[in-house]
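Fresh eyes needed here. I'd like your take on this protein's tokenised backbone:
***
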Amino acid sequence: MKLSFWKLSYFLLAFLLVPKRAFAMHIMEGFLPIEWAIFWWIISIPFIILGLRSIRKTIDENPETKMILGLSGAFAFVLSALKIPSVTGSCSHPTGVGLGTVLFGPLAMSVIGTIVLLFQSLLLAHGGITTLGANAFSMAIVGPMIAYAVFKGAQKIGLSFSLAVFFAAMLGDLGTYVVTSVQLALAFPSEVGGFMASFTKFAGIFALTQIPLAISEGILTVIVMNFLKKYNVSELKALRVFSAKEAH
């Protein structure tokens, strides 16, 4: 058990306990029509099952990575629990899924993100149980998939490790909100203009605050990843996050 892990854990915990106004962005309990709530649950469950298998395989092969797995969950919990009011009258928040995605892949993050959302709905009234499937699909499934594709793509075109992490976290965050806007537009199409008019309205509500939030999340994720890169190199090599050359 490394001292560096506990230092970072205490920092995240202290960050979470700082008093802040209570807003909510996850689709709240009872907001979606029941047919859509069920639909998103059905779509999400296969990814969660595959994610459980992915986590089990990783832990069996590299049991020393359990601490970093827990850190990934704590990071996502803290960031996605920060509700920041928007100038539009609604609110936005980071997602925190980029870190765990880069470390463990998108399937593992589908489980971690769903657990985070479950605890937030139970402990913070942030989101809901009936809407957990929809929230998990946007933040714990599609967001990580986008982040992982961006991270691997950035590495292939020769971007530095830090830039790859930054763009992965930032675009994974933005992708989550695009999907949430799609979910809301599908459930509540506008009487005039249908789905597209509704999507434009929902996406526009969060755009002004979500873009700077996504950039901030990208920067914070790079900072935490560089911390792990400095003090937990062996675990990151075991997870094949980077090569031995990139570690220096």
